[in-house]
Amino acid sequence: MGRFTTAFLLFASALRAGEPVSADAQLLERTGERVKRFWDQLSSVASTENVLQEKLNPKGKVILNNRVKYDYLITLRWDNGGMLVDESRLQLGQTAKKAPQGTLLTTQGFATLLMVFHPQFQASYAFTMQGAEEAGGRKLQRIGFVARNGAASPAVLAIKNRDYPILWEGTAWVDAQLAIVTRMEAHWKEPPTEIGLQQLSSEVQYAAIPFKGQRDPFWLPTTAKIEVKTEHQHWRNTHEFSGHRLFSVEADSKVEDAKGVDSKTADPKAGAGEGPASAATKH
């Protein structure tokens, strides 16, 4: 398998003026507004990222693993009508032994899975209310989502100069009172058989992170688990984010671009497959 690249694209959508809005539609609209706020917050926060890379055998047993820690920063800005997403990592400390490069998978970009709820992108997905439950003292609404066939995708997988739109399907757990996504699980609904990919899935947990001087906490990703499976290979990576701190000019001088990260502007007017930004690379 070659290099994996995921791009997040935005496409305009709007509710019809004067159309009655149901409680479910109101929740989606409120959640979309929260997602917009999430991006503003995420782009002003740095954190410490601990990554566990694992390779599994056909029985699911870990046969190889590696741990690495980074000073992590994700930035988002708009440029000429497009969205530019860039993840920067600066490795912290020294590894105890030479990392087993060439056999483990490097993943990134999946903390931004929340983009499926962005108000400029919701039209590409069908949403269903799957019932309510309680967790951590919160009343949560489970919202299922599945990509509409033929709709523009917010993510693509690039292999050998060809882009494959990723059709996400999954479930989000939303605090119905605050309209905040607390957890998401998603998988690629129908991976193309010609690329040999049998499974690409992600689970992201979000939590309220308080900051001094801020009235309300920021809801930020704390854990992202990614699993990738082909006919002969199986990888599982776990990203944990902690030590969140507000980004400053001083932090900017300490966080450098990670080798191999390639970010480009996503043009809202472009079709699926245009405007890639690095998301997962196999060494």
Walk me through the structure.
The chain has 283 residues and is mainly β. The chain has one domain (4-8, 22-282). The protein is 8% helix and 48% strand. The chain has two helices and 15 strands. The protein has helices at residues 23-42, 249-252, and strands at 4-6, 45-56, 62-79, 82-91, 105-107, 125-135, 138-147, 156-159, 162-165, 168-175, 180-188, 197-209, 218-230, 234-246, 277-282. The strands form three sheets. Strands 4-3-2-14-13-12-11-10-7-6 form a ten-stranded antiparallel sheet, with helices on one face. The protein has a three-stranded antiparallel sheet with strand order 1-15-5, with no helix packed on it. It starts with a strand and ends with a strand.
Which features characterize this protein?
283 residues, mainly beta, ten-stranded antiparallel sheet, three-stranded antiparallel sheet, 2 helices, globular
Summary, kept brief:
By secondary structure, the protein is mostly beta strands. Helix content is 8%, strand content 48%.
The whole-number mean of residue pLDDT values reads 77
- Using only C-alpha atoms, the radius of gyration works out to 19 Å
Q: Would you tell me the structural class of the helices and strands?
A: mainly beta
Order of helices and strands: EHEEEEEEEEEEEEEHE
What general form does the structure show? globular
Number of H/I helices: 2
Instruction: Report the sheet with the most strands, covering strand number, pairing sense and barrel closure.
Output: 10 strands, antiparallel
Strand proportion = over 45%
**Which runs of at least 5 residues are low in confidence (pLDDT < 50)?**
1-21, 249-283
**Overall strand count:** 15
Domain count: the total is 1
End-to-end distance: 10 Å
What is the helix content?
Answer: under 10%
